[in-house]
Amino acid sequence: MAPTITVAAAQIRPVLWDLEGSLVRLLDAIKEAAQSGVELIVFPETFLPYYPYFSFVEPAVLMGRSHLRLYEQALEVSGPEVARIAAAARQPSMHVLVGINERDGGSLYNTQLLIDDQGELLLKRRKITPTYHERMVWGQGDGAGLQVVESRLGRIGALACWEHYNPLARFALMTQGEELHCAQFPGSLVGPIFSEQTAVTMRHHALEAGCFVICSTAWLDPSDYATVTPDTSLHKAFQGGCHTAVISPEGRYLAGPLPEGEGLAIAELDRSLITKRKRMMDSVGHYSRPGLLSLRLNRSPASQVEAMGPLVAPEPGRPAAPPAPALVSPLPLRLEELTNG
User: Fold this and answer.
1) Which is catalytic among the residues 45, 81, 134, 208?
2) Which residues face 150 on adjacent strands?
3) Residue 227 is inside which H or E element, if any?
4) What is d(CA 315, CA 110) in angstroms, rounded to the nearest whole number?
């Protein structure tokens, strides 16, 4: 494992209401990052097809049309869009952390996918609790996604937006030796106070976990506001809120923060800073008190069915029912397997 790696956080503008448009911008950003030798790039929360900004300004009784439009463009993990990202990651040998609106049956989820430089899906996780207005859009995730995965670059974990305000969710990743933390936020939301809060939260996690944080937020151009809502009095809701950056285990900015506009925050990470920080304060090691304080984590995937009792043998002459499909696929998976069956 190399002593240094190069990472990037993308502050990028989605093409609202257009999955293909947003996907092309993401693929172009991967190509741009490759020119700087980037080995891991992080994209914003549910960048594909776009974050549901409409849910922040439209009352629930009126947002049905916008919600259905999002359903039409939401991704399936086994779909062609994810396969295109995997192919793009393989070409320059880059790890990619992307946020998607995942469609699974009749529900949408805020899902994070980590694809490695060989096109393998290392991590698929869902936001455990959608925040405030988001609860009208997405279903809930489960503890199965609170995991840190091994990679060529080190141990990588991820959370989305206000999951970072759940200290036990962060602690679950810290106990697994997280070295590179991928954070995603919507950007262009709430106002400058959102940027300030993101800065505090991201620097604190870097310090407490003793890890590097790669934080990505999206950005809306003022011309985008009217496509979300024609009510100009609500446009202030989309101004500010961006804070794309790379932060060291000492809480220092290595790249960024980017307060507005598009761009890549690129930094070279020195692994020795992890040990330097943890020598002083290891929250899950010598600075912890497990005899007094500990975490109970249910990592079982959520399931709507718990089968009990023996299987009933089929009647003579009647074929047995096929086995139920697995609810959770083991990781890692090659994306070719997902797309080609």
Assistant:
1) 45
2) 155
3) helix 225-228
4) 44
pTM of the model: 0.89
**pLDDT tens for each residue of 54-90:** 999 999 999 999 999 999 999 999 999 999 999 999 9
Instruction: Note the pLDDT of residue 288.
Output: 93
Residue 275 host element (H or E): helix 272-280
Integer CA distances (angstroms), 329 to 77, 78, 138, 337, in order: 11, 11, 21, 11
- Tokens 């299987």 found at: 311
pLDDT at 320: 61
User: Is residue 54 within a helix (H) or strand (E), and if so which, with residue range?
Assistant: helix 54-57
Annotated catalytic, 127?
A: yes
153 with 182: CB under 8 angstroms?
Answer: no
196 assigned to active site: no
Pick the catalytic residue: 120, 127, 179, 182? 127
Residue 238: closest CA among 195, 199, 203: 195
d(C-alpha 127, C-alpha 99), whole Å: 10
Which is more confident, 313 or 49? 49
Q: Which of 39, 81, 124, 161 is catalytic?
A: 161
- Report the alpha-carbon distance of residue 181 to residue 204 in Å, rounded: 12
- Please check whether residue 224 is in contact with residue 208, taking contact to mean a CB–CB distance below 8 angstroms: no
182 is catalytic: no
